[in-house]
Write a structure and sequence with these properties.
With about 300 residues, the chain is of the alpha+beta class. It has 2 domains: about 1-160, no CATH class; about 170-300, Rossmann fold, CATH 3.40.50. It has helices at about 1-15, 170-180, 215-230, 245-255, 260-270; strands at about 30-40, 50-55, 65-70, 75-80, 95-100, 105-115, 120-130, 140-150, 155-160, 190, 200, 205-215, 235-240, 270-275, 280-285, 295-300. The chain has a 9-stranded mixed β-sheet. β10 (about 190) and β11 (about 200) form a beta hairpin. The radius of gyration is 25 Å and the shape is elongated. The relative contact order is 0.11. This is Phosphodiester glycosidase domain-containing protein. Keywords: Signal.
Length: about 300
């Protein structure tokens, strides 16, 4: 438990570190680590091996490129400059950055803590693109051994990574909603856009009805997700249960139906309908007054 607590504290510190420039400075030293990373993928999430892996002893530092498969681990000698942050070449706290394209576009920010008995334990947290990781992103456990590097002044790290199953839609949705709860939109504005896609400014007096067309699992995460995005954008969202089941069914069959749109306008004052469709993988926003499709967004991961 103490070791896990130290790892949590270390990762929080790591997210705040600046990029290390690989040049010598007063009080610093060049350090070489021999790194071996074994990967197991019991659920087949990564696809067919070999799997590309890029690794560095600090995100933003020197990167070595390679690959791994069940029979052949990733191997590299990685150099870095130590002493900049008060960590020595043989510090029992080592930071590592991993890029595994089969798991997504971004880097895994990792901390490895080395015990006196030579065992190492830590984890890496995912960060989309150039963003810093937060408490809601996915985690990879890093376990293995460490001993002084006989070919340099750093460590010989032998790490094992077991790839977890793909997160279920419910887990993904819950993490999205927790992230969105921290978003504050400017007062009196209304805008909408899916994460990582362009945001559209809507009418500031818009009242949006959100519907999802798909199986029960899809509806359970798609509609709350869309509603949370609208709330985060400052838009008014209509409770879908206030609309009669028959009328919701009409809109699911044809979201541009002028008759159904007129009814939903009179019934609950909706000015827009946002429909997420599992079959097409798209969400479309329809203006109630005209029946025009104002925008379409991909809902695929």
């Amino acid at each position: 438990m103490k070791r896990r607590a130290r790892a949590l504290i270390a990762l929080a510190r790591f997210a705040l570190f600046p990029v290390v420039v690989q040049t010598a400075a007063c009080g610093t030293e060049s350090v070489t680590h021999d790194v071996r990373i074994s990967v197991s993928d019991p659920t087949g999430r990564l696809g067919a091996p070999p799997w590309r892996i890029d690794a560095g002893m600090d995100v933003g530092g020197q990167v070595e490129y390679g690959s791994a498969s069940p029979e052949s681990p990733f191997r590299a000698s990685i150099s870095e400059v130590r002493g900049v942050h008060g960590l020595t070449s043989r510090s029992n706290e080592q930071r590592i950055g991993l890029n595994i394209p089969a798991l997504g576009s971004g880097w895994w920010h990792g901390i490895v803590l080395i015990s006196p008995d030579g065992t190492s334990e830590g984890y890496a947290r995912f960060a989309h693109g150039g963003e810093a990781p937060d408490a809601e992103t996915e985690v990879l456990l890093l376990r293995g051994t460490a001993k002084p590097n006989p070919h340099g002044n750093g460590w010989q790290l032998d790490l094992r990574i077991k790839i977890p199953p793909t997160p279920t839609p419910e887990v993904v949705a819950a993490k999205r909603l927790r992230r969105l709860a921290r978003v504050v939109a400017p007062p009196g504005t209304c805008s909408f856009g899916l994460e990582g896609q362009p945001t559209s400014r809507l009418s500031d007096d818009a009242k949006v009805l959100v519907l999802a067309d798909g199986d029960s699992r899809y509806e359970a995460f798609a509609r709350p997700w869309m509603e949370a995005l609208l709330h985060a954008g400052g838009c008014a969202v209509i409770d879908h249960t206030s609309v009669a089941t028959k009328l919701r069914g009409q809109l699911l069959r044809d979201v541009t139906s002028r008759s159904a749109l007129l009814q939903v306008s009179h019934a609950v004052g909706a000015t827009m309908v946002l429909l997420a469709d599992q079959k097409t993988g798209m969400a479309q926003l329809v203006e109630v007054a005209s029946g025009r499709v104002l925008g379409m967004w991909s809902t695929s991961e």
